[in-house]
Every structure is written in structure tokens, then in C-alpha cells.
């Protein structure tokens, strides 16, 4: 949905105020789409996995342990790069922090049941209850 003229003027005023207040932050925000950069890193990671696999197989065919180790390291680096950038590249939204009981609607699954809290949060809650008694 396009913005109205009034909304566009307000947005331009906000942008100008941001540039006036903090030009360094404004330039870092203006540099481009973070998803695009993350997608490129994800693609680079996939390419590194394929190249590493080829080098690993080459190291197995020509009995060369250093070549096989190099291939494994390249594969591992590519996989790590892909995993670290997957969430940013796909635009997956991380759920916000839930309340103390975890009953927020953002933390609910498909069936409407609230998700279980992580073990750390449950242990902290138990500790607080015991300490308060």
C-alpha cells in the first residue's frame, strides 16, 4: 500500500532529523538491504560447501591427507557461513521476549498451545519460587 502525501512528508522529515542527529548511523542504515547481503553470504557458503566437497573427494582420489583436510575445512567454513546467515537471508522473524509465564500470543504454536519455555528460564523460575518462600 503506497503512503499518502502527508505520510511521505512526515517520513522525509524523520529521515532529515535522523541525518542531522546522527549522520554516522544514518549512513550505516542507508547502505542497503541487509537481506541482500545475507543472501549473498548464504550463496557464498553454499558455493564453498560444494568446492570443499570437490577438494575433499580430490584428496580421497589422490591419496593426499592435507588436501582432504583442506577440503573439509573449506566445507565446514561454508556451512558455518550459511548457517550464520540463514535467518537473516530468509527474513525469518524471531519471536519477541515472552512474559514471566510465557503466555504471549507470539510464543504460541499452530495448535494454540503455548510453547515450553527453555530449560534455563524454567530453572530460574523454580529457583525464584524456592527463594521467595
3D architecture notes:
- By secondary structure, the chain is mainly alpha-helical.
- It is built from 5 helices and no strands.
- The protein has helices spanning 5-21, 23-30, 34-61, 65-90, 119-132.
- Helix 1 (5-21) packs across helix 2.
- The longest helix has 28 residues, at 34-61.
- It is flat and about 70 Å long.
- The N and C termini lie far apart (54 Å).
- The relative contact order is 0.08.
- The model is unreliable at 102-108 (pLDDT under 50).
Structural class: mainly alpha
Helix content: 55-70%
Span of the ends, CA to CA: 54 Å
- Please tell me how large the radius of gyration is: 24 Å
DSSP helical segment count: 5
Which geometry do the CA atoms define?
Answer: flat
Beta-strand segment tally:
0
Mean pLDDT, to the nearest integer, reads 79
> Strand share of the residues?
under 5%
Low-confidence stretches: 102-108
| Major sheet description | none
Element order, helices and strands? HHHHH
